[in-house]
Amino acid sequence: MELFDQFKAIQKKQKAFALVLGIASWDSNTEAPKDCFPYRSEMLSIISGESFSIGTSDTYKEVVNGLMERLDELDDMHQKEIKKAKKNLDKIAKIPKEEYIEYSKLVNMAQRVWEDAKEQDDYELFKPYLQKIIQAKKKQVAYRGDTDNPYNVLLDDFEEGMDMEQYDAFFDTIKKDLVPFVKEILDQKTNRDETFITTMYPKAKQKEFVEYLMNVFNYNFDRGLLKESVHPFTWNTHSKDVRFTVRYLENYVFSSIFAGIHELGHAIYEQQVDESLDMTNLKSGASMGMHESQSRFYENIIGRSKVFWEVHYDHLKTLFPKQLNDVDIEMFYEGINRVEESMTRVEADELTYPLHILIRYEIERMIFNDNIDLDTLPDIWNQKMREYLNIEPKTDAEGILQDVHWSGGMFGYFPTYALGSAYAAQIYYTMINDIDFEALIKDNNIEKINQWLQEKIHRFGSSKKPREILKDVTGEDFNPKYYVRFLKEKYSEIYLK
Amino acid sequence: MELFDQFKAIQKKQKAFALVLGIASWDSNTEAPKDCFPYRSEMLSIISGESFSIGTSDTYKEVVNGLMERLDELDDMHQKEIKKAKKNLDKIAKIPKEEYIEYSKLVNMAQRVWEDAKEQDDYELFKPYLQKIIQAKKKQVAYRGDTDNPYNVLLDDFEEGMDMEQYDAFFDTIKKDLVPFVKEILDQKTNRDETFITTMYPKAKQKEFVEYLMNVFNYNFDRGLLKESVHPFTWNTHSKDVRFTVRYLENYVFSSIFAGIHELGHAIYEQQVDESLDMTNLKSGASMGMHESQSRFYENIIGRSKVFWEVHYDHLKTLFPKQLNDVDIEMFYEGINRVEESMTRVEADELTYPLHILIRYEIERMIFNDNIDLDTLPDIWNQKMREYLNIEPKTDAEGILQDVHWSGGMFGYFPTYALGSAYAAQIYYTMINDIDFEALIKDNNIEKINQWLQEKIHRFGSSKKPREILKDVTGEDFNPKYYVRFLKEKYSEIYLK
Question: B36 contacts in A (CB within 8 Å)?
């Protein structure tokens, strides 16, 4: 069909723009020198503008809308491409180009202001930007015609099919079942010697271990690379270029190890997407939540299991003989699963992590649906920390200002982190009925686990919706009980035995 | 003037495209993973095509031609911008877009074929591509309407104001004055112990020394970075983002040291261009020859001088105490200025280097103006090597196939390498009349030499033509006698004393 060819031609151009903007962003986040940014920002806003123009042009709208009317003439995969294109188009089609560029500049600037505000512990500095971003987000949602429940729109943007009703149910389970359990665990004061955790581990050896892990997890070195950056992240343009970063804290070796395995989870997902999708808009992982489920699966379910370290702890010890001389595998396993009152999300352990997300979810809901006064946010944050986590931030820097997300306009993103862990647990209980998970890890045969995940999840990219994948894999719809079960079983065994 | 504003708006868009293509190219040349290239090439050809369309659109042509008619209404700097834009426009205006894209694909492919051909020592493999590229270059020249002497057009593209007549005169001087001198030097067989040159120098320590050199030469770390790549190069998008690479050969430490200083010369030039030019088409160095003059000045005139090592040799020794234990500064100085029959240009010493260029110049002239049969090239190459350098390649890989340039269509580029060294010498003899060159190096005050070069050369970017700069700096037009004088003085002192 000629119309479909037209669609593919425009889409290819969009993908070309996405590629160069993506490479520029990788460069900015990993090595670009300090002084280059004013010029670079100005130039990149031109390229973003060009890309925006292509993706909102009248021709493109006519093509996509025309194809929507003739969907039944297309095969299944092409229908999916068009539906996704239509959905993306509707998100931005009514935003005037100038407003789009203004918004890009606003979040660029807000991220720099947020950095300063965090450093200076000055919420007042950031507040006006937060205000503007929230207004802009509300306006963007209004352009789409759906204003009854603006937060629902944002939630769906990050995780198709999820809304407040479902998240409320999910977080209610967490509040009811997990918060009391966490308090019980936090009350178990242990006398364990955990000084090895914060001993000095030289950076070069840490890097060597992360590279070892890349081999263990069967990362494809011809399709990506490992680099260093302030915040670890995974980056990809298509299945054959999937890179990730870690950072090396010399006094906290767990950071590079577990951020490394976490990002490996994201990266292996992307490397295993079927390459026939590279040239489509279905090329990447199914959703934020599904992506996070994979990174958490690798990081927590594999990477923090005892069986994994029974195989690999000796190698770690050969790299750090002095640091780990007096640490047996039992101590090490307990160390990597230590539960504590943590002030910041990114440093939180597996068990307390969802409570950090719960707080953010509740606050975002207030911002978008209750028009809450921004002056009250720091106090609300602190109260919730006390309520759920027995701990209260002393400064806004370690409280309300700790995360970058809001300065980038990413409201609705946080809940997917907890959702991902819950997906992971649900997938795990299916997997162990299907393959001998423990035996494979013992045999250092993670390749087989990768293959199982590729077959069931990864290869589809976003040609299947996250909930559809979950149902096809596990035989049931999303059910948070597996997540609670996993955490209770694991941490009871460690702390309450 | 509204027309000029229109010009600036289009130019800004072109610069934005140049930026993202530049970043992509940096990534491709330093770290992009092997498997990403098919997708990447296809996508980048779309972005190049977009950029080409903007730079050859009817609107842009009308704007530039309109401004050419009203030049006298513009100030001097704006006139220069328009003239340069007009010149660049005329180079590509008549090439059909499809042909332009085809040509980009051809050279992309040819570079890969050249790599294989070199590796397999198979000139026949590369020949058909060489043939196609030469035909395409001739066609491109013909589009510009000047076909009497196509090589002159290419020479002028790389070095404005130079033509065969002038290069013939330059290379005649080299042939007449330098070739006999080189043979005299090559006949001086020395019994020097030079094993330290090819001893093992660990990579990490080499890197440390290159970073030390970056400080010595006052490289601005906020405006760039050092990285590693197979072929060293300097890369810049504007004066505030100027990066360079070296490679570390563990059995040849001179490679990272002198390629490092060489690239530092290119980089400091770009970092010192007046930042008011960043937003114009005059932002970068004046020409290939002038650029090479600066890299050669830093590498050879400063970096291979005895006085430089009198200051810095001790530091090198602290990094490599074992390797340099028995090497006094005299031996080291002679080592870094060793003259020998070398097969390949990139490994040639300062003295024999221009003879390698002479060979390439004579062959390019035959290709473009004498329609020479490509089958005969390997033999011609080898004969000339024997004639000028007393040495004959045994394979095409170390002969005609050694350089990448022709596979990228860069005919007319080579001569600027020798020209740059000659410019450098001419500038040097002016500089030493003006400032105390040796004393500044002894005081480790290269900053002052940088300032002199910035004031006289760097800050102008390409707002002055290379020959204009040379005349303003040295008080005379290009004169190769300084180059010959410099080499004879230096190498007589080392070899014939």
Answer: 223, 237-238, 240-241
Check if the beta carbon of residue B247 is closer than 8 Å to that of residue B201: no
Confidence at residue A248, expressed as pLDDT on a 0 to 100 scale: 96
What is the pTM assigned to this prediction?
0.94
Q: Residue A450: which of A462, A441, A311 has the closest Cα?
A: A441
Give the closest-approach CA distance of A266 to chain B in angstroms.
17
Which of B432, B486, B411 has the alpha carbon at shortest distance from B164? Answer: B411
For residues B88 and B60, is the Cβ–Cβ distance under 8 A?
no
- pLDDT band for position B188 (cuts 50, 70, 90): confident
Residue that has been written with the tokens 């509040």 in this structure: A175
pLDDT tens column, A235-290: 999 999 999 999 999 999 999 999 999 999 999 999 999 999 999 999 999 999 99
Cα–Cα distance between B276 and B282 in angstroms, integer? 10
B226 closest CA partner among B240, B207, B245, B249: B245
Rounded to an integer, what distance in angstroms lies between the CA atom of residue A293 and that of residue A265? 9
Catalytic residue among B263, B270, B292, B364: B263
Residues near A75 by Cβ (< 8 Å), separated by ≥ 6?
none
Residue B191 to residue B308: CA distance in whole angstroms? 25
Contact A2, B1 (CB under 8 A): no
Sheet with A234-238, strands from edge to edge, namely A226-228, A241-246, A234-238
SS3 B33: coil
CB spacing of A278 vs B24 below 8 angstroms:
no
User: What does the pLDDT average to over A303-332?
Assistant: 97
CA B124 to CA A146: how far, in whole Å?
Answer: 66
pLDDT in tens, B160-180: 999 999 999 999 999 999 999
Q: Distance between CA B257 and CA B217 in Å, rounded? A: 13
The DSSP letter of residue A239 is: T
Structure tokens at B385: 């090597």
Chain CA centroid to CA A356, Å: 14
B362 is a catalytic site residue: no
Rounded to whole angstroms, how far apart are CA atoms B262 and B299?
5
Asked if A222 and B35 come within 8 Å (Cβ–Cβ), the reply is: yes
How many A×B Cβ pairs under 8 Å?
A: 118
pLDDT of res. B452: 98
Interface of B with A (CB under 8 A): 12-13, 15-17, 19-21, 23-24, 26-27, 31-36, 38-40, 43-44, 46-47, 50, 220-225, 227, 237-238, 240-241, 243, 278
Nearest CA to A367 out of A406, A416, A420 is that of A406
How far is A294 from A244, CA to CA, in rounded Å?
15
Tell me which of A11, A29, A30, A240 to substitute to probe the interface with B (most B C-beta atoms closer than 10 Å): A240
Q: In sequence order, what DSSP letters do the residues of B356-424 get, joined into one string?
A: HHHHHHHHHHHHHHS---GGGHHHHHHHHHHHHHS---SSSTTTTTS-SGGGGT-TT-HHHHHHHHHHH
Distance from CA of A389 to the nearest CA of B (A): 42
Between helices B353-369 and B150-158, what is the axis angle to 10°?
140
Cα distances (angstroms) measured from residue A251 to each of A141, A304, A350: 44, 20, 20
Q: Are A234 and A267 in contact (CB under 8 A)?
A: yes
> Which tokens belong to A493?
């065994």
Q: What is the DSSP letter of A370?
A: S
List the beta bridge partners of residue B242.
Answer: B236
| Residues of B with Cβ-Cβ distance to A223 under 8 angstroms | 33-36
Decide the pairing of beta strands B226-228 and B241-246. Answer: parallel
Question: Annotated active-site positions of A, please?
Answer: 263
Task: Chain A: give the shortest CA distance to residue B224, in Å.
Answer: 5
pLDDT above 80 for B190:
no
